[in-house]
Amino acid sequence: MSDHILQFKNISKRFGSQTVLDEVSLSVGTGEIFSLLGPSGCGKTTLLRICGGFDYPDAGRVILDGKDITELPPNKREIRTVFQNYALFPHMTVWDNVAFGLKIAGVDKHTMMREVGKYIEMVQLSGHEGKKPGQLSGGQRQRVAIARALVNKPKILLLDEPLAALDLKLRQRMLIELDTIHDEVGITFLFVTHDQQEAMSISDHIAVMHNGNVEQIGTPVELYEAPKNSFIAAFIGDTNFFDGLVEQEDGDYCTLMIKDFPALSVYNDKKLRRGDKVNLSIRPEKFMISATKPEITDAHTNLLQGKVEEVIYLGAHTRYWVRVQDWRISVVKQHFSYALDERKICWGDEVWLKFEGDNAYMLERYTEEDENLLALPDV
Prior knowledge:
Oligomer: single chain
Distance between the termini: 34 Å
Number of helices: 9
Order of helices and strands: EEEHEEEHHHEHEHEEHHEEEEEEEEEEH
C-alpha cells in the first residue's frame, strides 16, 4: 500500500489565455496536514477545486487511494470541503447542519444521533446544538463546517483559506484547534492558504506554488532554512539579498565578493565555481548585532560594520535596519533577557554584524515580473 493517499499527476488548467496550472505533480502523505501555499494567482485554489471535483483539469489525473477520480463528480469522491465562507445552511440548526450529509446518505437515526453528537463534542460546540449559524461567532461557524465535513468520514478534508475571515487572535487559536481535531480524527487535511505563518504552524509538508508551478515541497524547516531559490526565501519569512561573485572555491565553502563588503566565507552547497554570479540570502535572525567588535574564532565567521538607521522594539525581539555602504540590512535580535538599565543599541550607533558561513544560502534570483504576480487576483 502506498504511503501517499493523494496524487496529482501532470495537472494542467487554463482559463482563456491564462495558464493557471502547468503540469503540476505532487503527492500527499496519508494522515498528514499538507498545505498549498503561494501568492494570489499562483493556482493553489484551482488545484484544490480540481481535487474536490468542482473544476476539471485540461490534462492530468487525480489519484485518491490508488483510484483515478479525475472524472468523478464531487458527491462521488470520498472528499469533503470546508469553504472560506463556511457555506452553512442559515435556516438550519447546528445539529441539522452537521447531520445533513448523514441524512442524504440514508444513515439510520441511532447512528446519526451518535455520530453527530460525537463530532459536535469534538469541535467543542456541545450546548449550541439548537442555535442557527446567525447566532454563532465566526470561529463557532467554522467549527460547525468542520464537523459537518468530518461526520461522513472522508478520506481527505479540503480546507480553502478557512481562517481568512477571522481576526488574528482567533486565527491563532483556531490553528491549534484544527491541529487537535486532525490528531483526533487522523485523516488527511489538504490546506490552502496565502499566509506563510499559518502554513508553517500547522503543516507536515508544504508545496509552495508560484505562477502555476510548484517551486518547492518540503517540511516547514526545510523551506525556511534551505530554500531552493530566491522566491522561496522571500516568500517564506524575511530575508536579506546580496548580489555577488564567487572568487575562490575552498572545499565545502567558497569566498564571495560582494560590493562594499569584505571577502565572505559561505557554505557552497550549490557547488558553484570561480566567476559564478551569486544571489546570497541571509535571514535577519542569523546576524548577531553588537556595539563592540566581536572576537572571531572560526575561519567561516563573517563580520560587517555599519550604522543603525532604524530601531523597532517588538516585545519578543527588536528589529534593526543597519546601513553598510549601499546595503540596508534587516537584523532581528531575540530578547532572551532584557535589562531596562542596560545600554541599548540606538539609532545612529556604529555596530558590528556577525554571521556564520553555514547560515547563508546562495540562490537563483526571482525577477520583477515574479514580484508583480503578488498583485494578481487569486484563482
